[in-house]
Structure formats: C-alpha cells, structure tokens
C-alpha cells in the first residue's frame, strides 16, 4: 500500500534523511565520468545475470566449460576480480535492480513475508528499479528471464503489482518466481499473462528449452527495437536460470562433455586454481581451500560425472544464447555503443534437494505415460513437478537416475559446488567468499579501451544502478510516484572502466540467513551460521567471539583467522556492521 504523504514533507525527508551526503558524493563523482560518455550517443545497456554458478565456472575465470562468447567479451573488455553479490537469488536480484542493500528493498530474505520491514518478500515502494529510472530518461526497457522479486504466486490470478511491467519494463518474457523445470518452466509469463510453452503464440521453437527461450526472446526484442527505428537507446535485463537446479539440458549438448569429468573433483579444482593464478585473477600467495570429498572413496561416480556434464552443458547453452545476442547487435550496427555487463547471482549451490527426495517412490525412468497429459493452456504451477507435460512421471532427486531429461530433477550437490567455487570457502547462502564472489565482465567497445585488462577494485551489486544512471545521463529520483525513494548505496563504475580509478568507499556489507560480513579495504570480518544456515536468523547481535577476521590481500581464501591477533579491528568492524544493519533494516531480524 503506497504512503500518501504531502509532497512538502516528502521532499524534506528525502533530502535530510537516508544519506543526503551519499547523493552529493554521487553527483560530484558523476560529473567527471559522464563527461566522456555524453560526447557520444547514449549507449544501450544489456545486463546479463546467470543463476547459481561459481566463481571459476566460465572459461575466462579459470573454468574448463566451453564459453567462447563470454571469453570474447572478456578478451575485448574488462574482468573484475573482486566483485560481490549477496549470496542468494532473491536478495541479489533486488539489490542489482535497485542499487540498494536487500533489506532496504523489502527482500532481506526470500519472497515470503517474515514480518519485519526489511523482510516482506516484495519490492517496496521506497525503491526504484533500473528500468524505472532509465525509462524516465527515455530508454526503451526490456526483460527476458527470471524475475523473482515479488511474493510467491498462489494461483493464476495472483496480484501483479510487482511484476516487471509494473516496475518499469516495457516488455517482459520469463518466469515470475525462481526455479523450475527447463522443459516446462514454473510461472512462465509474457508481459502480464501466465502462459505455457504450448500456447505462446509469439514463440514456438521446434524444441522448447528455457535457456534458449530466454536468449531467443532477448534477440527478438533487439530486432523489434531496430524495426521500430527508435532514436532512444534501450536497456535490457537478461536473467538466465542456468545453471540453477534441476540439471536439465539437451542430450546433444551433454554429449559434448563426455569424459571431461571422469577424473573427479579435485583434479578439476587444481586445474582451475592454476589457471586462475596464471590469469592474474588470484594472488599466488592465496592457498586453495581443502577439498570436501575424496574422489577415490565417492560412491555413484557415474551419477556424479553425469551431473557435472549436464551442468557444463547448461552453461554452454547459455553462452551460445549470449552469442546470439551479440551477433544481433553486430548485425544491426549497435554493438560498438552497447554496454554489456555479465555477472552471477550467488556462488555455486551445494543444496541436495533433500526436502523433495523421496516424494516419489520411483527409482527408474518410465517409458510409459502414466499421468493424464497437461492441456495446452494448463499453467505449470509446481516448482517440483511430478509429471511432464505429456504425462510421464518425474523422478525427484535420485542417485538412481541420470540427470538431463524432463523426467529427472537433480542437483549436483556440495562436491561439484566446491569445484565451481574454486578456490573459495562455502557456497550459496553463506557470505564467505564462495557464496558472494562473482565474475563481472564489462564490455563497451566505443569506450573501454583496455582490452582484456583486469580490475581489482572491491565492488558490489549496489554499484550497477549507479553505473547505469551514470552512462544514461539519468536522474535518480528523490520521490517517485508519490513515495520517498531511498538514496542509492553504490558507486558508479565508469571511472573504473575508463581510467582504472579507485573507488572512494568506506565499506561494503553482507547478511543472509544469519551469515554476516563487512569488507573494509583489505579486512573482512565474517560470521557464518551452522551447516543448517539460519541458526542465527532471529538474533540481532552476535557476540564478538563468533566473528572471524581475514586479510583479503594475503588470504582471500579465508584460511587464516586473525581475530585473536587483531581484537581492536574486530571490535571496530563489528560495530560498523551493526550500525549499517540498523540503518538498512537488516536488523531487527524476523521473529
């Protein structure tokens, strides 16, 4: 429900609360950066996000997975070595889209209402999306892919006040909520209507596969934009679900990785580690974390190998789709003045889907259609479907069934997630480096001249809004549609892109499910919940002795805790984290 405040009161609150000083610093920083950009036509902006992938998965970040298109963007653009997300899908998307920390947007956790202002599970009216800001500056705005920043749908008639079309996007194709089958996506929609792969009149491929659908509809938007001969630039958000579980991919793509992972977990980790060091993304002083499994003792090796083959195929199909987007830009002459950013929403996912395992008693794929087939207009409303659209049973998280087809629903678990996050600790959910570190590739041929260079500035999702506002020459609002808007928290990365300048920032902060961290220059203070993650969910303040301290210059892999050696630094950062948490609605935690 929107607040109905007087405009005079709104203006006063907007100016004198919530960080007026930050807004002024953004303006002064912007003057220098935007001067270069304004000499040219304002650029198109394409923001590409992958789902549940590790720091070292793609080729240009150390991986053996075939990603030639992303590698080409990196070779002709920039790679960031220390860019951070929030460790989980919904909070990351909220932060990315708004330039705020998650609890400031109302999505401090996931899309359930937890009862506190920072944890309503819905984008609030005190934030604006990049699409809303850039649309106000004359941009065309498109989205293809996963939204996942509004409350869970309960039926096909659920309220749509926070769907993409209502938050600044002119066109939308994708899924409203998070995960689901790649062959029959959960909550698939076009604009404001839920659809099925069968009844979508605007997209009927020979074989439906959601990653391809996201790419193809992004290409479709570019073609439509060009045909309209618009003089305005466009902003497009391409939000893939690859390589989030379930492990689904076309069989011909999986075949390309046969034998690639037969050597097991640790051999792949070591190769990635050496490649990362050679690239300059990792410091030679940093140690690789200990492996979490011994391949020689692992059971069901064929099942594990197949999982990683499918995972790699999912990433390659995404890369192929990104290549299609690039080719369309090259074809219509827009590639030179398009800023493309690629990143990931969190570290690799160690979840094993134990909460769905055993829902069905089947231990093998069926060659018979045992259910009534779904109708052409029957909406898929299950994240974990028990049947395919043509009525075949789905086997949920079983080591007896090899991943890939629409009859399977598996995750690759902690062992391969440990490989994906090479060389860092922990996974998605946690705010150790394995949970929050993401590649960031920045490509902009007409402006970025340092081809293939690295950028080591510590940066965060909150910086993407500031960067988009900067390059678009847009104005970030103090009031939008009658509501006070929280000032953006980030810094424009344009000075980093163009001149490799350092960012003038104090610190960046993290919290998810009780996992907490602050990064200030070389120091990182971090606390992690137990393996169950969320044990401290309801606690506002942790004792100092439950925090660890690491020197990120000498030990980014977090192998040597210095908390007892530097108690004064622990105390200072501990206090700063709590001040930030109160200011951003991160605490109080839900009851």
Task: Tell me the number of helical segments per DSSP (H or I, 4 or more residues long).
Answer: 15
Gross morphology is: globular
The percent range for strand residues is: 5-15%
The CATH homologous superfamily of the largest domain is termed Alkaline Phosphatase, subunit A
Structural class by helix and strand composition:
alpha/beta
Question: What is the name of the CATH class of the largest domain?
Answer: Alpha Beta
CATH architecture of the largest domain: 3-Layer(aba) Sandwich
- Distance N terminus to C terminus? 23 Å
Low-confidence region ranges? 1-36
Radius of gyration from the CA trace? 23 Å
Task: Give the domain tally.
Answer: 2
| Main sheet attributes: strand count, strand direction, barrel closure | 11 strands, mixed
Mean pLDDT: 91
Helicity range: 25-40%
The total strand number stands at 19
As for the CATH topology of the largest domain, it is Alkaline Phosphatase, subunit A
Describe this structure as you would to a colleague.
The chain has 591 residues and is α/β, with parallel strands linked by helices. It folds into 2 domains: 7-505, 3-Layer(aba) Sandwich (Alkaline Phosphatase, subunit A); 509-583, Arylsulfatase, C-terminal domain (2-Layer Sandwich). It is 29% helix and 14% strand. The protein contains 15 helices and 19 strands. The chain has helices at 7-16, 20-37, 68-75, 89-98, 102-105, 130-136, 210-227, 251-254, 265-279, 301-332, 413-420, 433-436, 462-472, 494-499, 567-583; strands spanning 44-50, 78-84, 140-146, 171-175, 188-190, 193-194, 234-239, 338-344, 395-396, 408-409, 437-443, 453-455, 459-460, 479-480, 483-484, 508-512, 515-520, 523-527, 548-551. The strands form 4 sheets. Strands 1, 2, 3, 4, 5, 6, 7, 8, 11, 12 and 13 form an 11-stranded mixed sheet that branches. It has a 4-stranded antiparallel sheet with strand order 16-17-18-19, covered by helices on one side. Strands 9-10 form a two-stranded parallel sheet. Helix 4 packs parallel to helix 13, helix 7 (210-227) packs parallel to helix 10 (301-332) and helix 9 (265-279) packs parallel to helix 11 (413-420).
């Amino acid at each position: 429900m929107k607040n109905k405040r007087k405009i005079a009161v709104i203006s006063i609150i907007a100016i004198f609360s919530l960080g007026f000083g930050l807004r002024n610093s953004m303006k002064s920083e912007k003057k220098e950066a935007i001067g270069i950009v304004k000499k040219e036509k304002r650029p198109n902006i394409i923001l590409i996000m992958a789902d549940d992938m590790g720091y070292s998965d793609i080729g240009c970040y150390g991986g053996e997975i075939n990603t030639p298109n992303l590698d080409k963007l990196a070779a002709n653009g920039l790679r960031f070595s220390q860019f951070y997300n929030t460790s989980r899908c919904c909070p990351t998307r909220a932060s990315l889209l708004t330039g705020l920390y998650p609890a400031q947007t109302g999505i401090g956790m996931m899309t359930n209402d937890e009862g506190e202002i920072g944890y309503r599970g819905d984008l609030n009216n005190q934030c604006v999306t990049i699409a809303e800001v850039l649309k106000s500056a004359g941009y065309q705005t498109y989205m293809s892919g996963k939204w996942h920043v509004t409350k869970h749908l309960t039926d096909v008639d659920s309220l749509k006040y926070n769907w993409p079309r209502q938050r600044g996007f002119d066109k939308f194709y994708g899924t409203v909520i998070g995960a689901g089958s790649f062959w029959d996506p959960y909550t698939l929609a076009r604009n404001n209507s839920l659809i099925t792969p069968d009844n979508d009149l605007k997209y009927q491929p020979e074989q439906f596969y959601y990653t391809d659908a996201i790419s193809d509809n992004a290409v479709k938007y570019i073609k439509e934009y060009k045909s309209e001969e618009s003089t305005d630039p466009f902003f497009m958000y391409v939000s893939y679900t690859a390589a989030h579980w379930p492990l689904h991919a076309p069989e011909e793509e999986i075949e390309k990785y046969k034998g690639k992972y037969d050597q097991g977990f640790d051999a792949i980790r070591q190769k990635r580690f050496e490649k990362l060091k050679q690239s300059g993304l990792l410091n030679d002083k940093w140690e690789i974390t200990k492996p979490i499994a011994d391949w020689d003792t692992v059971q069901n090796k064929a099942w594990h190998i197949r999982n990683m083959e499918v995972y790699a195929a999912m990433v390659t199909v995404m890369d192929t789709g990104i290549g299609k987007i690039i080719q369309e830009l090259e074809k219509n002459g827009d590639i030179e003045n398009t800023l493309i950013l690629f990143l990931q929403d969190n570290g690799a996912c160690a979840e094993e889907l134990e909460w769905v395992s055993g829902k069905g008693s089947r231990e093998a794929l069926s060659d018979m259609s045992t259910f009534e087939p779904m109708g052409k207009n029957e909406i898929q409303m299950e994240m974990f479907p028990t049947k395919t659209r043509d009525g075949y049973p789905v086997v949920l998280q079983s080591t007896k069934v090899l991943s890939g087809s629409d009859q399977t629903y598996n995750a690759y678990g902690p062992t391969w997630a440990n490989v994906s996050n090479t060389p860092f600790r922990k996974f998605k959910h946690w705010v150790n480096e394995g949970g929050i570190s993401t590649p960031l590739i920045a490509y902009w041929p007409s402006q970025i001249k340092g081809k293939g260079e690295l950028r080591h500035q510590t940066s965060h999702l909150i910086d993407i809004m500031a960067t988009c506002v900067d390059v678009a020459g847009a104005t970030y609002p103090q009031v939008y549609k009658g509501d006070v808007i929280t000032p953006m928290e980030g810094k424009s990365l344009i000075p980093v892109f163009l001149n490799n300048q350092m960012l003038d920032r104090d610190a960046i902060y993290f919290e998810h499910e009780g996992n907490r961290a602050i990064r200030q220059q070389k120091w990182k203070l971090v606390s992690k919940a137990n393996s169950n993650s969320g044990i401290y969910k309801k606690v506002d303040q942790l004792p100092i002795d439950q925090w660890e301290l690491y020197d990120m210059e000498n030990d980014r892999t977090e192998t040597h805790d210095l908390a007892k050696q530097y108690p004064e630094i622990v105390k200072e950062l501990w206090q700063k984290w709590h001040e930030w948490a109160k200011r951003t609605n991160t605490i109080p935690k839900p009851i």
